[in-house]
Prior knowledge:
The complex is a heterodimer.
Chain A: H1 5-24, H2 40-60, H3 73-95, H4 98-101, H5 105-116, H6 125-144, H7 146-158, H8 166-187
Helix pairs in contact in A: 1-2, 3-5, 5-6, 6-7, 7-8
Chain B: H1 2-14, H2 17-35, H3 41-52, H4 57-82, H5 91-102, H6 106-139, H7 144-161, H8 166-180, E1 183-184, E2 191-192, H9 206-224, H10 243-265, H11 271-285, H12 298-313, H13 315-321, H14 327-338, H15 347-350, H16 352-373, H17 377-383, H18 388-407, H19 410-428, H20 433-456, H21 463-466, H22 468-485, H23 487-500
Antiparallel strand pairs in B: 1-2
Helix pairs in contact in B: 1-16, 2-4, 2-16, 3-4, 3-9, 3-14, 3-18, 4-5, 4-6, 4-12, 4-14, 4-16, 5-6, 5-12, 6-10, 6-12, 6-13, 6-16, 7-8, 7-20, 7-22, 8-20, 9-18, 9-19, 9-20, 10-11, 10-12, 11-12, 14-20, 18-19
Amino acid sequence: MKINTKDMVCVGLLTGFALIGLWLNMDHNLGSARRMGPGYMPMLTFYLLLILTAGVFFQALTNGPDPLTPWSPAEIAVVVAGAAAVFVVYYAASHAGGWLGASWNPLGLALFVGCLVPSILKSWRPLFLVSASFALFGIILEPLGLMVAIVATVVVSALADETQKPLGVAGCAAFLCALCWVVFIWYLDIRVPVWPQLS
Amino acid sequence: MDLLANLAHGMGVALSLNNLLFCLIGCLIGTAIGVLPGIGPVATISLLLPITFGQPATTAIIMLAGIYYGAQYGGSTTAILLNLPGEVSSVVTTLEGYKMARRGRAGAALTIAALGSFFAGTVSTVLVAASGPLLTSVALSFGPADYFSLMLLGLIIAAVLAQGSVLKSVAMVTVGVALGLVGTDVQTGQQRFTFGIPELSDGVGFVSIAMGMFGIAEIILNLERPESRSVLSSKVGSLMLTKEEFRRAVPSVIRGTALGSVLGILPGGGAALASFGSYMMERKVSKGRHEFGTGAIEGVAGPESANNAASQTSFIPLLTLGIPANAVMALMVGALIIQGIQPGPRMVEAQPDLFWGLIASMWVGNLMLLVINLPMIGMWVKLLQVPYRYMYPSILIFCAIGVYSLQNNVFDVYQTVIFGIFGYLCSKLRLEPAPMLIGFVLGPMMEEHLRRAMLLSRGDWMVFVERPISATMLAIGFVALAAMLLPSISRKKDAAIQEGG
């Protein structure tokens, strides 16, 4: 078989992107070529993308094989579970009162939990623990301040790498706290809570 | 002479204490990330973008430019001493440079890389200065239709020269353009693709895309690969060149500079392409070509000069036309726009401090880099002993604080997470993120020029073919695209890239 699997996945991804774009673009007034409305350029762009994707499809029929590393059933299962967790947590948090439902916290929590779920499997840890640690930074920053956020992010992201040792992580976190305080708070004076807010 | 007066003015700007300091910081950071494998200029510049907002625009650009060409200097160190490319643009330097190091001539290889880069930097600085006003006057006669075609040409060539499948790269450019359309429509004020999210009405965060797709995705990919950095084996040895080596290197440096200057101006070109091109050329035409594979100095001198020349001439399309030639330049456009400066042909007149100050700072920066790199080489070699497990948490934290401080909004942090995962997916599927970033930056500008052109032509699409400038651009773009889609030529391009990588 000379089918290029990687390219076929690309075709699926890009076609989906273009079709969703065209569907969303139905809300916008197209206008005419002379007086283009807000929907004209998106229309051109998404149609062009569809044409290009068709081109990729025909190339992919013959220029393979280029197999993807197959995911094990367990790997697929945890990713699906993670995606489900994103929706469940988002729905639950945005309907909960107080801090959980405030501003962007539902999105942050959903991303964080959604990324933690697939991290059960070792092979997913680099991808999802790094992402989770980044989302965690956003969740913690405003209520608990920069210092706690740095420590939490360093610790969670450290779990993604097996060569880390506890002492090294602690040192790294302490060093970064000091460095960020000097650079961002003392020198650049950015507006960000540094310590937990007492309210 | 006008040029000299302008350059003197630029020197005045570049030599002010603050600018000098930030030029030095840029060069130091550039060298550091150049030396370190696993972090490139695109990620670093997007990382540091938010930090530059507090500075005046000129200072910010001077520093960011310093990172880009500084990385070209630093990349050669790792390539020569460790047989590992510190940057993509120094991949070919590993071929001859490491062989020289094994023969005990590491010092000579480092010296010629630095001297060649300095020579190339000087020449290309003059080139940028001379061509800037010239191209600007040409660009001012461009109508909206010409601009649209020029940008289209830029996007096509950027995609054609990118690694991998041309069609997929063009598709990624289109995805970038589509992402660039998110936000408020300039003419009607209608919200497009914002899903009612107020944060998206200004468009998808540019810094979030760059950091996610280049910073975070790179970290994840690096963590998936086991660390392959070996312990330093070779000693640097004497930095002095022998007379023979010097005599052989000079013509290569000159050829590399010329080739690099030309390839840098091309959209989609830049440092990496230039060093590949120069290596190919040296292997064919240089006097020492029979020694290639055993540590020929020409194979270090040419590519290292070429990549530095290209990293500077790639500023030409940005400064004169406002069109980014590669992903780094797309970041510069982003930096300028956030500073409230619309890049384009009017920049030379409206922002003389920025234009001439940047050019003068390039030469000053090159001089600094020569000092930073040669006598202080030992310090950079030590830097290589810092393991990646201490580096990536630091990169993550700097990304997170930077992206938050843009608008003091955690939404940007979450947006970055999403683009990080998307960037990882793209690299697994061999979809290139660099063309997408260029498309993202150029998309909104293209829409505006397209609308204006069509309004002026009363809805007649023929305007793009009737105007000679526009027609020429479209013809070149068409030929480039057609040529690359022919199997025989695209195979050659792949072979050239393969051989280099």
